[in-house]
Amino acid sequence: MAKPVVAIVGRPNVGKSTLFNRLVGKRKAIVEDIPGVTRDRIYDNSDWAGREFIVIDTGGIRFDEGDIFTREVKLQAELAIEEADVIIFVVDAKEGISSEDEQLAILLRKSKKPLILAANKVENFQKQLEYYEFYKLGLGEPIPVSAMHGMNINDLLDAVIEKFPEAEEEEEDSDAIKIAVVGRPNVGKSSLVNAFLGESRLIVSDIPGTTRDAIDTPFVFNGQKYILIDTAGIRKKSRISEATERYSVIRSLKSIERADVVLIMLDAVGGVIEQDKRVAGYVHEQAKANILVVNKWDLIEKDGHTMNKFDKDIRQELKFLSYSPLLYISALTRKRIFKVLELVDFVAEQNNRRINTAELNKVINEAMMLNPLPGGGGKKVKILYATQVRTAPPSFVFFANHPEMVHFSYLRYLENVMRKNFGFEGTPIRLFVRQNKGKE
To answer: How far is CA 244 from the centre of its chain?
Structure first.
């Protein structure tokens, strides 16, 4: 099931970004005591009481006409409200109710979405008078919080997850490989999906932003079941002029989370640009198996060195995806498109591969003999054994006598050794070091 979405909304300078940072556990949103700092919606993952969800931070909503920027921020917040399963309406307990709070309350009631009223910046939780007046908004009982100091956040989260829709099992075929097709606009995502399906099921256009929503399409090839998720193009924020396109970006990123294998599409003509790195970086951060698919290869003039040069340039720009297969195709002419599906099968298998503990430890011990762990402060650092704890992505725990002294560069060495011995092509590997509780 897709993760529930929680949108944080309110007028400017009530502490929305501070609350966002508190909920996601990091300082991802810019926090300044100046109204209007958060311009675009920002989102991240969070969890509480075993429920995972997505939190969206929004710019402050103003109801005066203002400039085009003010109107755009308001529209973005409205779209976040539309996307949300639960809304946290943040008000300022110090300043009390404003006319903008009242107008926003009317807007939120019209949305008919589950709503939590959070009275922020409360200093004394014993004095209900500090936030009592917010009952007037007609949105139920306000929950007093201090996002800055982390006070009463637990009660707020309890109230939020109570309003989540019931978790239901996905009805998708468990044997089907879910493929998300992602990339910046106009790289040929819809054309590739249509080429797979042999029909123009999706609108194909050279106008960026044609595909607005994520569309799931099941199909079968060579007896293998697939579900294709064609996602709206992800482009640099400063280049987005239509609010609906920004709205589609969140859906695209959510589709990545649902996928088993992600096809990261690049444009052979345009080369790798900064936005390609951002899209690829998100796929990597979410630990999704992936393939780099370079489209429009038919438009490139070639000689005997062309592909090697492209390989070198792409690997240089996307160093963090050194484990990802690289394939050149033409969605328009359908050249090599079914090689993509062969790679999807292979990468999905690698992503779900499980290594026998004895075999794993044999490889790790040989690696440590060839390149011993450096000591620290006179202490002898040892990895005593390793085990695989999950697949998709393959994740391993190394038990050490001094885990804090195992440097990340040594883990990178062990990852390279594991890839050399076990493959894991196209899939990230997660390595964790834990304290060994037994005898050394």
So the answer is: 19
Tell me whether strands 395-400 and 430-435 are parallel, antiparallel or unpaired. parallel
Can you spell out the DSSP letters for 138-163?
SS-PPEE-BTTTTBTHHHHHHHHHHT
How far CA 431 is from CA of 25, 281, 389, 434, in Å, comes to 22, 18, 10, 10
b/e burial code for range 190-215 (CB count within 10 A of at least 16 → b): bbbbbbbeeeebbebeeebbbbeebb
Question: How high is the pLDDT of residue 219?
Answer: 85
Q: Per the structure block, which two tokens stand in for 36?
A: 């209007």
| Bridge partner residues of 120 (DSSP) | 92
User: Distances in Å between the alpha carbon of 45 and those of 39, 57, 107, 233?
Assistant: 19, 11, 26, 21
Q: What would the two tokens of residue 43 be?
A: 């989102």
What topology does CATH give the domain 177-351? Rossmann fold (3.40.50)
CATH number assigned to the domain covering 5-162? 3.40.50.300
Query: Could you tell me the strand order of the sheet in which 177-182 lies?
Result: 215-221, 224-230, 177-182, 261-267, 289-295, 326-328
Evaluate the CA torsion angle 163, 165, 168, 174 in order and state its sign: negative
List the CATH code of the domain at 357-435.
3.30.300.20
The segment(s) of the chain belonging to CATH 3.40.50.300 are 5-162, 177-351
Cβ atoms of residues 292 and 318 within 8 Å: yes
With a cut of 70, say whether residue 249 has pLDDT above it: no
Tokens of 325: 């297969």
What pLDDT does 62 receive?
A: 73
- Per-residue pLDDT tens digits for 149-204: 999 999 999 999 999 988 665 555 678 999 999 888 889 888 898 888 875 554 44
How is 341-372 classified by DSSP, letter by letter?
A: HHHHHHHHHHHT----HHHHHHHHHHHHHHSP
pLDDT of residue 179: 94
What does each C-alpha distance from 326 to 302, 312, 353, 390 come to in angstroms?
Answer: 17, 11, 21, 26
CA distance 181 to 172: 18
Q: Could you give the residue range(s) of every CATH 3.30.300.20 domain in the chain? A: 357-435
Rounded CA gap, 342 and 20, in Å? Answer: 41
- Weakest mean pLDDT among 67-81, 278-292, 375-389: 67-81
> Which phi-psi region, left, alpha or beta, contains residue 284 (left: φ > 0; alpha: ψ -120 to 50)?
alpha
Cβ 39 vs Cβ 89: under 8 Å? no
| 3-state SS string for 309-348 | HHHHHHHHHCHHHCCCCEEECECCCCECHHHHHHHHHHHH
| Tens-place pLDDT, residues 106-129 | 889 888 899 999 999 998 887 777
Pull the structure tokens for residue 110: 């019209």
